[in-house]
Phospholysine phosphohistidine inorganic pyrophosphate phosphatase (Pterocles gutturalis), 414 residues
Amino acid sequence: LNRIKASGLKLRFCTNETQATREKFVKKLQGMGFDISVAEVTAPAPAACRILKERSLRPHLLVHNDLVPEFDEIDKANPNCVVIGDAAENFTYANLNEAFRVLIGLEKPVLISLGRGRYYKETDGLKLDVGAYMKALEYACDVQAEVVGKPAKMFFESALAEMGVPPEQAIMIGDDIVNDVGGAQRCGMRALQVRTGKYRSVQTLHP
Amino acid sequence: LNRIKASGLKLRFCTNETQATREKFVKKLQGMGFDISVAEVTAPAPAACRILKERSLRPHLLVHNDLVPEFDEIDKANPNCVVIGDAAENFTYANLNEAFRVLIGLEKPVLISLGRGRYYKETDGLKLDVGAYMKALEYACDVQAEVVGKPAKMFFESALAEMGVPPEQAIMIGDDIVNDVGGAQRCGMRALQVRTGKYRSVQTLHP
């Protein structure tokens, strides 16, 4: 990382974190000794904000409380779309019905999802991830969600736009063959899989 | 209804009600003056019970509290499937995670859904129906739910089996072109649409 920075190459960190702000995420990495700042991080929430601004969308949020500050500068009055993230405890019956009512009440429902994960593991067991609740709203409203976050093409395009770099001049480095390598390649970037983290030797990408 | 009964024809009432027992449903109709008994009603919950018994399935229930008595005689210890109905207030984050954990923990997940409705209207507004939550679990566990209730073929077959009548000797009478008429026809029965209830003249079934 220090060698990349010293070389003068442009750099972005791409994460699918949606249970906390970039500030919190960056502090954690800084604590581990990494040279990283909030401005260098591309995450689903700010990528969604970019889309909201571009298309004059005012979101109804169904997200984790800790993520709400990422949407501070976004107009949320009289919502004309729904943004769903891994809301965890906020996935209540009442909140799901409320998000549904906003969506179904729109002439052309727009659902933006900060990921498409099925489930994840916490210390107290497996939990349904945002993708499951996204599917519930998709079915109820007969819409297709627009997914932000890796491996969505739109997510990598956001990162490239922030750097002002065309895909063919960028390389993605990651440990996830689908979310990192596959997503970047579909976007026209080259990609490099590191043999650390979640890398397993049996995983290969069939073109 | 009285003329059908007087003629000696076999008769079943087929309903998609899953927020209450047949007892409650029948009492309501009796109060309106209809000659109807619980034994004449085919509803999703008892149809599911029939399937559970046939296949030695022990369900984890995610249903409305008022529906639980329908499953009184079913062994629910050490569950090897999940039965989902319109659980309403029981669709909590904790309950959904629990049903998900049962399903994902099974070698071959079996999900039985008491309907596939998208949403319905109550006095305090629109509510997500069982179909939306079914889709969430389907996606998270990569399974296809087995849907009981109209218009599922299996549901009409249950009613026919209870009467001991082959489909070609039965006729379905209802007001819903999809759930009543379409479902019965796909099952090999003839069907008659009444011009009452939810009947609208613009609705026709394209074969």
In short: Chain B touches chain A through 28 residues (CB under 8 Å). The beta strands of chain B are 13-14, 41-42, 59-62, 81-84, 111-113, 119-122, 125-128, 146-147, 171-174, 190-193. The two ends of chain B are 29 Å apart (CA to CA). The first helix of chain B runs from residue 2 to 7.
